[in-house]
Design a protein that fits this description.
The protein contains 13 helices and 13 strands. It is of the alpha/beta class. Helix 8 crosses helix 9, helix 10 crosses helix 12 and helix 10 crosses helix 13. The chain is globular and about 65 Å long.
């Protein structure tokens, strides 16, 4: 039986993120080395014209084909990268060229598997390919995606999401995680793990792991909230009641709740739980502590409370999380 041809098209357009374009082909190339034979992957870069495309990094990339040249060709995997603009206040906004959107919609009609990288999810959404589906994107544009496309179930947390034949990935470096997942889908976990080792990556983020931690969330706009966040981190094993935090901030409990909602978009209780889950994740990934010990160290106190928090925030159990994401 011959090698299955896997025609992979990566969309190019002005200001596209360079790593989004180069990451997946590198993964496919390393797979061929590991297999010591043909993988069937044939990757081409497609754009509206054959003129050089200037990426966000300033590096120019030459397309292999135009969209029109492959308009009728069967495609195995269509990879759609993204691009953003940043305003003077540091706010990030995903960009979507209408011409590229139309071509993506056309090509998707005869594509087996569609994958967006980072903010490329906005292009898929504009093309109507995410309607009724669960999808992710980079955390910095997740609110934009949800606001502009209410028919899309946006989940800003996972590294990547698969919904039927549509895959969406989170951040820039998550393009490697997404490509490894595509390899695992085609050739199995064992070969994907060997490629991950070549990339000096842990094959430990198959979608369920959060793309960002509590400590990486946007910086607070007030010193008071920053001080409270540090206090929570230092006293994660304590009770951390709303009354205690309000006393620390020298405000009423009602005012504290209002401050958290305005500044962090959440409640004190929800933030504390997310901080404890983050601490527990680190313990499960890097230590041999028992679940009882982890629950005590992170302030959940009982394994039942720890398990309920993990199910609520990560849709898994602490034991499943450790088995999947443990750093040996």
């Amino acid at each position: 039986m011959g090698t299955i041809e896997r025609f992979v098209v990566i969309a190019l357009f002005d200001r596209v993120d360079l790593l989004d374009v180069t990451g997946p082909p590198e993964v496919f190339a390393l797979l061929q080395r590991e297999m010591n034979g043909e993988t069937g992957y044939h990757v081409v870069l497609a754009a509206e014209t054959l003129d050089p495309v200037t990426t966000s990094a300033g590096v120019r990339v030459l397309p292999d084909v135009t969209f029109a040249q492959i308009a009728d060709r069967a495609i195995d995997t269509l990879v759609v990268p993204g691009s953003v603009e940043v305003d003077g206040d540091g706010r990030v906004r995903a960009l979507s060229d209408p011409g590229v959107v139309e071509w993506v919609r056309t090509l998707a009609a005869h594509t087996r598997r569609i994958a967006s990288v980072c903010v490329g999810a906005h292009i898929l959404a504009d093309a109507g390919l995410l309607d009724g589906k669960r999808a992710t994107t980079h955390w910095s544009t997740a609110q934009q995606l949800a606001a502009e496309h209410p028919a899309v179930a946006v989940d800003a947390d996972p590294i990547f999401i698969r919904d039927q034949n549509v895959w969406t990935g989170a951040g820039l470096t998550a393009c490697l995680d997404l490509a490894l997942a595509l390899v695992a889908d085609d050739f199995g976990d064992a070969l994907a793990l060997r490629v991950a080792r070549q990339l000096v990556m842990f094959l430990k983020r198959p979608g369920g792991q959060s793309q960002f931690s509590v400590t990486l969330e946007p910086i607070s706009t007030t010193r008071r909230i920053d001080d409270l966040r540090h206090y929570i981190t230092r006293n994660i094993a304590g009770q951390l009641t709303v009354a205690e935090l309000a006393a620390q901030a020298h405000v009423s409990e009602r005012q504290l709740t209002r401050i958290f909602k305005t500044d962090l978009g959440t409640t004190p209780a929800a933030y504390i739980e997310s901080a404890r889950v983050e601490f527990a994740r680190h313990q499960l990934e890097t230590t041999d502590n028992t679940l009882e010990r982890v629950a005590t160290l992170c302030g959940f106190n009982t394994t039942d409370t720890l398990t309920r928090a993990f199910r609520r925030t990560l849709d898994t159990t602490p034991t499943e999380y450790r088995n999947r994401f443990r750093i040996n």
